[in-house]
Amino acid sequence: MLDFTGFNRKSSVDAHDPVSDFERCATADLRLRLDGLHRSLREAVARQSVNSQPGPDAESAPLFVTPDDAGRLLSAVERATEESPQVGGLSESTPAEERQRSELTKKVTRSQSELPIECLRREHELSDFEIDVLVLCAAAELDRHYGRLYGYVLDDMNRQAPCVELFCVLGNPGLNERIARQALLGRNGKLRRYRLLEATRDSARPERTQLALADGVLEQMTRPGTWRDRFFDPCEIEIPEYASLSMFPERKKLFRLAGALREGTVAIGAVWGERSCGVSDAVLGLAATGALPVHRLPLDRDAIDTELSAAKARKALLWIETDRLADPQSTTPEVEALLVDRLERVTTPVCLSGQFPWRPPSLLARRDFGEIRLRSPSPEYRECMWRRQFESLDPDHARDAIARFRLSPDETRAVGRVAAVRTELESGTSPADHIDVACRQVTQWQGLRFARLVEPKRGPDDLILPDALHEQVLEVARFFRSLIKVDDGWGFGRLDSGGGGIKVLFTGDSGTGKTLAAEVIAGQLGLDLLKVDLSQIVSKWVGETEKNLEIVFREAEASNTLLFFDEADTLFGKRGEIRGGNDRYANLEVGFLLQRLEQFSGLAVLASNLRDEIDPAFTRRFQIVLHFPRPKEDERRSLWRMAFPPAAPLSPGVDLDAFVKLDMTGASIVGAARMAALLAADDDSEAITLEHVQEGIRRQYRHEARVLSATAFETDPQPGARRR
User: Fold this and answer.
1) What is the pTM of this model?
2) What is the 8-class DSSP label of residue 489?
3) If both were cysteines, with which of 354, 362, 387, 669 could 323 make a disulfide (CB 3.0 to 4.6 Å apart)?
4) R_g (Cα) of the chain, nearest Å
C-alpha cells in the first residue's frame, strides 16, 4: 500500500486562507497525476514478473536461459523494432481524472493563479513525458516505497533511485521512442538544462544515470508563481518580439546573411560594431529572421564542449561575444585555442559579435565565413525608437535626447521601462518627464574605479567670465547637441579618421573657472561630469597607466558622461628626448593617450594651467581651445557678490566693492569668503564683519604664497580684531 501522507498534510491555517487553498489544489493535482502513473508502474511490474519467472531449478536460473526464457525475451525485444518516434506520456488520464483536474484548474483560476505543474509546462514548453518524469522523481522523495518498486521494475534492487533506464522502460515503448526518451533525459534535455533535474550519479552507460529533483523543485510544485526566475538555462537566449533587421542601414546584407546561416551556405557569420550600433539586436534579428533559437556560448574552458553539444541538440544559432577574447583578465590563450579548434569542426551555425573583429586565419581557411560591419543607426531611426518608448514625446524633445545621450537600442528600451516605473511612483508626471534621470540610471550601472561622478549643480549664471568667453563655453554644449546632425545627417563623420566626438582644451591660471565651466557644460547637456582621479591613474609600473586610462575612457563611453581631466599637463605633457628607459615609457604613455583621445566618441574637456606644456600633437586634435584669463574688476565685483550666499549673515558695514581691486581669481575669492564665514562662526559672531573678510583675504594670500601689500585695505582692523 503506497503511503500518501506526504501529499495529504493539512495546513494549520484557516481553511479560507487562499495560500492553503492553493496548496491543497496543487497537492491534489500532483496526486491525480500519480494515479495515472501508478497504472504504468503496475503494467511494468506485471511485465517484469512474467519476464523473470524462474525455471525448474530456481537456484541456477540466473546462470542460464531456458528455451522458454529465450522465447519470452525474443518477444520482448521484437517490440523494440516498432517505428514510433513520437514520445508520449507514461500514462493516459481517465475521464474522471480529467474532470477532477478541470475542477482544480477552475478553482485556482478564480483566484488568478495557475496550477504549478501546468505553469511549468507552459513556461518551459514541456511534454507529457517530461512532466511525468518530474512527478515520479517527486514521488520517490516523498515515499520510500517507490524506490523498491523502481528496483523491481529494473530487476535490480540495488538501483532504487529514479534513473534514465526506468523512464525508458515504463509503458514498454519501442526502440525509437526509447532513443528519444534518452535524449530528453540527457544533459542536453530541457529538464537538466533548466536545472529541474540533477544527475546524482553519472555513469559510463547513459541509461544508468541516476536522476533527482533539483533543490526547490518539489517546494515549487505546491506554490504559486513563475518557474523562470530560478529554473532556467543561462545560455538559452529568448528572442524578444522586437527582434528585427529592418532598423539597420545594412538590412539587405543582414537578411542575406540570415538566410545563408539558416541554409548552411555560410557556417560562421560575424557582426561588428560600436556599442551604440545595436550589435546584440542584430544577432537576435538574424536568429528571428532565420527562425533559429539562440544559444550563447560562455568563454569558459570547462563549459565550451558541453554548450556546443547543447546548441547542436537544440539546432540553435551559436552566439559568441568575442570582445572578451581580447581581455587577458577574462580569458586565456588556451581558451581561445580550444574555441578555434572546436569552431573548425562544429556543424552548428555560428554568429560572432563584438566591437573589435576576431578573425583567426585557421578558422577562415576551413569554414565559410561572412561578416558585416554595422554603422550607427540613422537619426531618423533613433527618433522613431525614442518616440516608440515615449508615446507622448514630441519630435524636438526626441531629437534633443538623441543628441545628448548616445544610447544603444537596448539601452533606449531600458530607459523607457525605467521612466515608466518612475511615472507610477510619482503621480502627476509623464514618462517624458523622467528621461534625464532614467538615462543616468541606465548608463551609470557600473562602479567607477579611477574617476568620480559629479552631478552638476551650477548653471551659466554662476560662471563669471568675459562675455565672449562665456558665450564660447556655452557653445560647447550646443555643438555637442548638433554633433549627430553634422556627422550622421550631413555626412561629416565619414571624413573623421577618429571616433568623432568633441575634444575641448581649457587653459588659464588656477581658479579662473575652468572646472566650473566644464560643470556648466555638463549641466546644459543634462549629463554628469566624470572627473578623472589622476592620483589613481598614474602608476610607476610600466603599462599600468595605459590600462587605467583605457578603463576610464570605456567607463566614460558606457556611462554617457562628460569626461574631464584636470591638471591635464600631468598626463598630456610634451614628449621629450629619450635619455633613459623611463623617458621611452613616458613617451609611450603620451602616444597611447594621443590615439585613445582621438578614438573617444564622446565629449572630453581637458584643463591645464600651463598651455605651453601640452604636447602640440594633442593641441591639434582639439576642436575648441579656450583660454581663461584672470578676472578683471567688473568680473571680480560679480564674484565677490556671489561668494556670499543670500543666507550668509554679512554685516551691512561690509562694502565688497572695496576688494575688487585685489588681483584674485574666482576660486581665491570663494576661498576667502568661506574662511571669513568660518572665522565668524568660530567667534560666535552674529554676522560676518569687515574684519573677518579682511582676515580671510590675508589667509588666502598666504595660502597662495602671495604677498598682500600693507595698503591693500583702506582701513585697519579695529583693536582686538582677530589676527592669525
Assistant:
1) 0.76
2) I
3) 354
4) 37
* Amino acid code (one letter) for 549: L
Contact in structure between 631 and 663 (CB atoms under 8 Å): no
Cell 493563479 belongs to residue:
113
Domain boundaries, given as residue ranges, for the chain: 18-54+67-220, 236-373, 379-443, 460-627, 633-703
Task: Let me know if the fold of 236-373 is the same as that of 633-703.
Answer: no
Helix, strand and coil in the chain, % to nearest 5: 50, 10, 40
Distances in Å between the Cα of 624 and the Cα atoms of 387, 397, 482, 523 are 33, 27, 15, 19
Strands (E), 568-622: 603-608
What would the CATH number be for the domain defined by 460-627? 3.40.50.300
Short-list 126, 143, 120, 163, CA closest to 31: 143
Cα–Cα distance for residue pair 116/228, rounded to 1 Å: 12
User: Which spans in 426-543 are helix H?
Assistant: 435-443, 467-481, 483-484, 514-525, 534-537
Show the CA angle centred on residue 636, arms to residues 684 and 632, nearest 5°.
155
Reading the block at residue 21, the C-alpha cell is 487553498
Q: What is the pLDDT of residues 138-153, one digit of tens each?
A: 999 998 889 999 999 9
- State the average pLDDT over residues 259-269: 96
Q: How far apart are CA 529 and CA 453, in angstroms?
A: 6
Give the whole-angstrom CA distance, residue 309 versus residue 319.
13
pLDDT 10s digits, 409-419:
888 899 999 99
Residues 211-255 have pLDDT tens digits of 999 999 999 998 999 999 999 999 999 999 989 898 888 999 999
d(CA 39, CA 80): 21
Q: CA-to-CA distance for 636 and 663, rounded, in angstroms? A: 9
CA–CA distance, 465 with 514 (Å, rounded to integer):
10
CATH code, 633-703: 1.10.8.60
> If you average pLDDT over every residue of the chain, what do you get?
85
236-373 placed in CATH 3.40.50.300: yes
The residue with greater pLDDT, 538 or 2, is 538
Confidence at 155, pLDDT banded by 50, 70, 90: confident
In the 3-class helix/strand/coil scheme, how is 193-204 assigned residue by residue?
A: HCCCEEEEECCC
Q: Which three cell numbers stand for residue 617?
A: 600633437
Spell out the SS3 assignment of 118-186.
Answer: HHHHHHHCCCHHHHHHHHHHHHHHHCCHHHHHHHHHCCCCCCCCCEHHHHHHCCCCCHHHHHHHHHHHC
Q: What is the DSSP letter of 614?
A: B
